[in-house]
Design a protein that fits this description.
This protein is α+β, with helices and mostly antiparallel strands and about 270 residues long. The chain has 9 helices and 10 strands.
């Protein structure tokens, strides 16, 4: 199948073409979901309410001949999906059609189970790494949920939870269903999405890294997406860390982050 555009035409696109057009996306918008609902309703006879339940992830499982056909169409394009988060969205749709892809383990549920079971609290995506996606809790302000992809061990999730509590204070972080970490009183945007920082922000970033070392936690990469920036409180908030006592840091990564921040320092613009 040769696709020349990523824009879905709900009047002319078939279901498989519409699904294929979004395989290079990093996320799926509500507008796209509404288009997929209309196409699935028109092309395979799925009822509008069932299509909404599947694509909008209401937590309801739809087991009908039409939903089975939809899961087959999703399966056809699944291997072409580039981003892990979108791949998990596609597999969650399949689960909503009654298809089980990954069995539950004694230590917790799989990613698609989590997305299905907790659909009422999962809001917009804030950040994504190779191991997890961070989303807003749409029912509670200043609360984030870090959801780990399949393959990440329960021990690693537990370790990160401990690291967050060391840095931010006991009770800040807790595990949810063995697949996610709930982070309370944390909000902001990844550094990669910030265009201007407060004056002397580079100094505050160094203080943030020093505090992590002091608390015996560490971000191995010091990536721009490992930290959020809260402009209102002029704070840097690490969202990627592990319990690790270190006496040295990745100076190359630190310098790269500092250059990025200094280039966007409000005093220099």
């Amino acid at each position: 199948m040769r696709i020349y555009s990523s824009i879905i035409n709900q009047n002319t696109d078939s279901l498989d073409v519409a699904l294929a057009k979004k395989t290079k996306n990093s996320d799926i918008s509500r507008k796209t979901l509404n288009k997929l609902v209309k196409i699935a309703t028109k092309s395979i006879g799925l009822s509008k309410s069932d299509a909404k339940s599947i694509f909008h992830n209401t937590g309801k499982t739809i087991k009908t001949p039409e939903s089975k056909q939809l899961s087959n169409e999703i399966c056809k394009v699944l291997r072409h999906v580039s981003h892990q988060h979108v791949k998990q969205i596609y597999t969650t749709w399949m689960k909503n059609c009654g298809v089980t892809l990954t069995p539950k383990t004694p230590d917790g549920c799989c990613y698609s189970d989590f997305m299905h079971d907790h659909s009422n609290i999962i809001g917009s995506v804030i950040a994504e790494s190779k191991e997890a996606v961070v989303v807003v809790d749409k029912l509670q302000a200043n609360r984030l949920i870090k959801i780990f992809f399949d393959g990440e061990s329960p021990g690693m999730i537990k370790d990160q939870t401990e690291a967050f509590n060391r840095y931010y204070g006991d009770g800040t972080a807790s595990t949810l269903s063995g697949r996610a970490i709930v982070l309370n009183n944390i909000s902001g945007y990844p550094l990669s999405q910030v265009h201007r920082f407060h004056e002397n922000a580079d100094v505050d970033f160094v203080k943030t890294v020093a505090r992590m070392i002091d608390k015996d936690v560490h971000s191995m990469g010091l990536s721009k997406d490992d930290f959020l920036y809260n402009a209102q409180h002029e704070r840097f908030l690490p969202i990627e860390m592990e319990t690790l006592k270190v006496n040295a840091i990745n100076h190359e990564a630190l310098q790269s982050a500092l250059i990025y921040i200094r280039e966007r320092d409000s005093a220099g613009n």
